[in-house]
Amino acid sequence: MEKRKATNRFQRRRTLRLTAEEDERMARQAETAGISVSEYMRRLFFGGRPIIAGTDDQTIRELRRLGGLLKHHLDVVKRTGNKNTLSELDATLREIRRAIETLSERR
Asked: ∠103-105-107 over CA atoms, to 5°?
């Protein structure tokens, strides 16, 4: 079977002028998202899927999982009545929520 050359689905090219700092920032963000600079620019311009690093997405999922477990333990502690542990768990749950919000804002 003969291999065929992939046809280029993008037929047009546009030029964008950037400062060196802007170009470096764009390249860094595209690399973090795991996509090419061109794909990064298309997604930004056309409002495609949010551009986030895969690690941020995994971290958010893990923080949500931990938050759920912590919430379960919080309910158990509420029933047993240990006030010190209750306040510690509540503070930790707030920190997890803040971390999730911070990571979500990067999207």
From this structure: 85
